[in-house]
Amino acid sequence: xxxxxxxxxxxxxxxxxxxxxxxxxxxxxxxxxxxxxxxxxxxxxxxxxxxxxxxxxxxxxxxxxxxxxxxxxxxxxxxxxxxxxxxxxxxxxxxxxxxxxxxxxxxxxxxxxxxxxxxxxxxxxxxxxxxxxxxxxxxxxxxxxxxxxxxxxxxxxxxxxxxxxxxxxxxxxxxxxxxxxxxxxxxxxxxxxxxxxxxxxxxxxxxxxxxxxxxxxxxxxxxxxxxxxxxxxxxxxxxxxxxxxxxxxxxxxxxxxxxxxxxxxxxxxxxxxxxxxxxxxxxxxxxxxxxxxxxxxxxxxxxxxxxxxxxxxxxxxxxxxxxxxxxxxxxxxxxxxxxxxxxxxxxxxxxxxxxxxxxx
Length: 360
What we know:
By secondary structure, this protein is of the alpha/beta class. It has helices at 3-19, 23-39, 79-83, 128-137, 159-170, 195-216, 232-244, 280-294, 309-318, 327-332, 335-345; strands at 55-57, 60-62, 66-68, 89-95, 108-111, 116-119, 143-148, 176-180, 222-226, 249-252, 273-276, 300-303, 322-325.
């Protein structure tokens, strides 16, 4: 039996047990046991080499184009254990300057019929000091993205201070840094996607990055993670601002506040961001709209609704260079990583396919 097949069988056994638990508790237990298995060397059954389909994006060499999305490992405490599953890159975080508990529990809900999750975690994390210490201990061989945000208690007018503090702290350790301005679970955070606010924030962080590049002797790429809940006109405006401000990549997309696709499902009316299969079409549309407008000016990292290999292929064919997984891992398990890698590897070119330009 191949390692992916063995891993798939193992997860098929474990999933009913995990789904019997509160989703957040299941998440914590999964990471704890994955880490324990890694520390003991007992994860060989699911260990998959990172290499096999390299791709160059944002000036970085990615061992393969399938990554782990931010949110799975908020404190960067399990990078090596997660890396053993075959991800070409891992994005840890979101981290905020100061530790914060996040929103009150319960704050994560499964919608099994829709293969979806709703979460309103609210950037729960142990803060920069613990995050940086964990990253320093990592020996992961792939590309490491570090995702930064602002504390809930920080007024939106002072958000730059939090992002700047995070950027300074994580810069020496990051393969790339993601600026998260799109979570729906921190009050007013998505206001930073508006034209003037976005331009001001990115201009200041770009200036900070240039100073850090000089002092550290290396230029770390900056990416911005955007929401799916924006219209085509705003997608275009944001894309133009990213290019003008020297941003290196865009991550599309975060979770959605829309509920049309899950109307009538248990928990559908819970506040928070919806992820999983119902997000696939909208997130893919955002990727395609970005790609048709940018025409290769910036690479796109696609995330949202990847629950099977074809979903990852859809993202690449829409114009993405890389993909990220999260909710799909909850429903399908680690074998999804190898399935997506194999499917993408069959595509000609294995790089972003920029769709033909469309009107508008």
